[in-house]
Specification:
By secondary structure, the chain is of the alpha+beta class. It has three helices and four strands. The protein has helices at residues 14-30, 62-70, 72-82, and strands at residues 3-11, 34-38, 53-59, 87-95. Helix 1 (14-30) runs antiparallel to helix 3 (72-82). 17% of the residues are buried.
C-alpha cells in the first residue's frame, strides 16, 4: 500500500539548506520514492502560517519511506538542514489506508 512522506518547512538560510536539497532527490529515488509536490503555490486552510514550503513524496510502502528516512544517506543530508539557524521542518509518513471520508 502506498505511503506519503509529508513535510512542512521554513527555510531560514537558503544557501545552507540547498546542501540538503541537492542530495535528497537521489536518496529518495534509491528507496523507490517519487516527489509529487515540492514548493509551489499553496493555500493554508487551517493552522499556522509559520511554514512556507510543503513537500509530498510517494513511496511504494510505509516501510520503504521509513527506511529512506532512517538511512545513513538521508540522515547525513538532513544534518545540513538541522544545523542551527538553517531551517525548521515537521515531517510525517502516512500510509494511504482507508479512503473513507473523514
Amino acid at each position: 500500500m502506498p505511503a506519503y512522506w509529508l513535510a512542512r518547512c521554513k527555510i531560514n538560510d537558503p544557501v545552507e539548506y540547498k546542501k540538503y536539497t541537492d542530495l535528497v532527490p537521489g536518496i529518495i529515488a534509491k528507496f523507490g520514492g517519487k516527489v509529487l509536490a515540492r514548493g509551489g503555490k499553496h493555500q493554508i486552510m487551517e493552522g499556522t502560517e509559520r511554514f512556507h514550503r510543503f513537500v509530498v513524496i510517494e513511496f511504494p510502502t510505509l516501510e520503504q519511506a521509513v527506511k529512506c528516512h532512517q538511512s545513513p544517506e538521508y540522515q547525513a543530508a538532513a544534518a545540513f538542514r538541522r544545523a542551527p539557524g538553517v531551517g525548521e521542518v515537521e515531517q510525517v509518513i502516512v500510509e494511504s489506508g482507508d479512503a473513507t471520508p473523514v
